[in-house]
Amino acid sequence: MEKLVICGGRRLSGEIDVQGAKNSALPILAATVLIKGESVIHNCPDLSDIDAAIKILKHLGCKVKKENNTLMVDSREISCYNIPDTLMREMRSSIVFLGSVLGRMGKAVMSSPGGCDIGLRPIDLHLSSLRTLGIKVDECHGTLICTKEKPIVGGVVSLSFPSVGATENIMLACALSEGRTVILNAAREPEIKDLADFLNSCGCNIEIGSHGTVAISGVSELHECEHHVISDRIASLTFMSAVAASGGDVILKKTDTSSFMSVIPIFEQMGCEINNRGSSLRIKMHKRPEAVLDIRTMPYPGFPTDAQAPVTAVLSIAKGTSVLVENIFENRFKHIPELQRMGAKIKIEGKVAIIDGTAQLYGAKVISPDLRGGAALVVAGLSAAGTTVVEQISHIDRGYENIEKSLSALGADIKRVKV
Ligand code: UD1
């Protein structure tokens, strides 16, 4: 077990590269199962969630090689269609293997992913969509058995909510199919386009419409390709939060500002000066943050739920009262009691957090409740007076590549310590 020890109060300055997107790399790694050949995936972040995906790939029979941030996945021989419970539990997003294993093998058997810290995270939309496409879905004592009894011939799947995972699973299940499947009210996150770009490079024909429509014209076989995973917009927003809270002047390189344009005005309202040049972004902050009256998490292109916790940490030291509404996950305020231990004045009323900014947070021993909640505690610790110890950082390692290394490069006093 490890923890992060942060001596707060240092301004951040310098340049860092932003990692590849975890939420793109995971479905793309799942998609490699569909290709009877070798996929070369560049810019894969080095994360424990990626290691969990590699374990699943190896279990299915793929040969996986890793060279720095490039993964080579040879899926010529897939030997099974079941994923054991132990591997499913390592990472909730493992459900994205459902579509690809089903697409390749005609059958997929895996445990239903359990609830997770940030909410129930049901998969009813994934399953009802597959049923619409003619897939037989049985659920028996926590095991999910999906069978393609006849080829998928296309159709229309209308999602009642633009679920990212459900959209990805439908794309993966339909990439090897006979007809054209149209998803209405599909997720529009940049990671969906990245998955489509990967599958299209392999010979599929996926069109992303401008109003949440994804049309998949399936093919009988996909070929090998090389792909470069997009930049991680949530990692960019987390580092921007760190600068907004601690002050400083930082350049983020290898970012993609077009993937989080709607969030930049929030940082400007907080008082940050932002200079945006496409693949690099300069953020300067020379004062105490200002409050932001109304932030609501929404599906893309709205304010991302994954950035809610780090931004809450910034607003907890803002001048004035901020109001933040979490619309996506029902239990995504678990970082707030930890921030309160550091002196934050935040009230929660259902899905609304009312943040009464305090001039200074104080270092404390806190526990990372989940991935983005953990990142929020790091952001808070960087700006706090004194020493903050963040425990249970395995959550943070699921989504941030050596967070302490990136922040130390910017002048933060942060160390990883073995417990
Ligand atoms: C993905 C991201 C996660 C992000 C989330 C929302 C990955 C690996 N994870 O998660 O970081 O926070 O999108 O942007 O890409 N829902 C249902 N039934 C379903 C599916 C979803 O009710 O069948 C609900 C969920 O409970 C949640 C909401 O829809 O309230 C959003 O979920 P979804 O978009 O599916 O998120 P994930 O794909 O799990």
Describe the structure.
There is one protein chain. With 419 residues, the protein is an alpha/beta fold. The chain folds into two domains: 2-19 and 231-418, Enolpyruvate transferase domain (UDP-n-acetylglucosamine1-carboxyvinyl-transferase, Chain, Alpha-beta prism); 22-225, Enolpyruvate transferase domain (UDP-n-acetylglucosamine1-carboxyvinyl-transferase, Chain), CATH 3.65.10.10. It has helices spanning 22-31, 48-60, 85-90, 97-105, 124-132, 164-175, 190-201, 233-246, 264-269, 305-315, 335-341, 371-383, 394-397, 403-409, and strands spanning 2-7, 12-17, 38-42, 63-67, 70-74, 82-83, 107-111, 136-140, 143-147, 154-158, 180-184, 205-208, 214-217, 226-228, 248-253, 273-276, 280-285, 295-296, 321-325, 345-349, 352-356, 365-367, 387-391, 413-418. The strands form six sheets. It has a four-stranded mixed sheet, covered by helices on one side. Strands 2-15-17-16 form a four-stranded mixed sheet. Strands 4-5-3-14 form a four-stranded mixed sheet, with helices on one face. The chain is globular, with a radius of gyration of 21 Å. The chain binds uridine-diphosphate-N-acetylglucosamine. Uridine-diphosphate-N-acetylglucosamine binds at residues 23, 26, 93, 119-126, 161, 163-166, 187, 191, 305-306, 328-329.
Using the coordinates above, name the CATH class of the largest domain.
Answer: Alpha Beta
CATH third-tier fold name of the largest domain: UDP-n-acetylglucosamine1-carboxyvinyl-transferase, Chain
**Low-confidence segments:** none
Bound molecule types:
uridine-diphosphate-N-acetylglucosamine
Radius of gyration: 21 Å
Strand content: 25-35%
Total number of strands: 24
Gap between N and C termini: 5 Å
Determine the CATH superfamily of the largest domain: Enolpyruvate transferase domain
* Strands in their spatial order, largest beta sheet: 22-23-1-24
